[in-house]
Amino acid sequence: MLKGILFFPVTPFAGNGSIDTAKLSDHLRAGIESGAGGVFVACGTGEFHALDLAEFASVVRTAVRVTAGRVPVFAGTGGPLPLARQYARAAEEAGADGLLLMPPYLVAGPPAGLVAYVREVVAAGSLPVIVYQRGTARFDVPAAVEVARLPRVVGLKDGTGDLELLARIVTAVRADPATGGRDFQFFNGTPTAEGTQLAYRGIGVDLYSSAAFCFAPETALAFHRALTTGDDELVRRLLAGFFHPLVALRERVPGYAVALVKAGVRLRGLDVGGVRPPLTDPTPGHLAELEEIIARGAAIR
């Protein structure tokens, strides 16, 4: 069972374009020491889409070594089915504790096809799997219940923002005799999830991924504490002063959900390099705005 802040580290690249495992180790240690409840490497924020199999395995091995069992390590997989199976096996061989299964590439299959996709990736190894509902992977209620019944599927992460659909999925999965007694977890996986977490909590989804934790751990932790202790006024101030401005900046350029996070890590003193194409790094003007947003968030307590 996962709890607390879920840390989605970036993947550092060296000047020659290779994976910088030393910087990754520093990034991971900082996040774990700040209080991460789980580490999700080589996922969306970690540019899973831009890593080859050897790079992916290196990232996962580094995370497993640095965490040393202190928190669970989940690794991304997804994309074309043959590749998703390969990455799933590589993550298991590298010592990961579980997988985050992201959407298949490009095509939008019907719910029955998505269930079959999940089933085949799960069968590629023995790790527990959290299924990410977003983009081309959108489950209806019967399909979500069927996926939740798979023995090694332990959670559903929602990035659609469709709370009406998710509320029906949560109710159906928790009422289903085959899943209701299991430790099945739901996650808010929308970009900058803090901005929508009040609404997700309203339908019983308490866990969320925090990209902001990568570069503003103090602010992310302050929000999490305020949310879980009922400090509504501090939640409001953090949303108004940090998270909502961050969302507004993020929405200006496609891909900024990742590029701004990586830029934020650099602004805080760890040179993790830029993003790989097709993403682009923030402009100087947007970097200046991001720096101001980070500073404002740090001042809110």
TrEMBL record:
Question: Would you say which domain of life the source belongs to?
Answer: Bacteria
Keyword line: Lyase
Which SMART domains does this UniProt record tie to the protein? DHDPS (SM01130)
Give the EC number(s) listed in the UniProt record.
Answer: 4.2.1.41
**Listed Pfam families:** DHDPS (PF00701)
Q: Its pathway?
A: Carbohydrate acid metabolism; D-glucarate degradation; 2,5-dioxopentanoate from D-glucarate: step 2/2
**Catalytic activity field:** 5-dehydro-4-deoxy-D-glucarate + H(+) = 2,5-dioxopentanoate + CO2 + H2O
Q: Which InterPro entries match?
A: Aldolase_TIM, DapA-like, Dehydro-deoxyglucarate_dehyd
Q: Which family does it belong to?
A: Belongs to the DapA family.
The family database entries (HAMAP family) matched by this protein are listed as: KDGDH
Q: What is this protein called?
A: Probable 5-dehydro-4-deoxyglucarate dehydratase
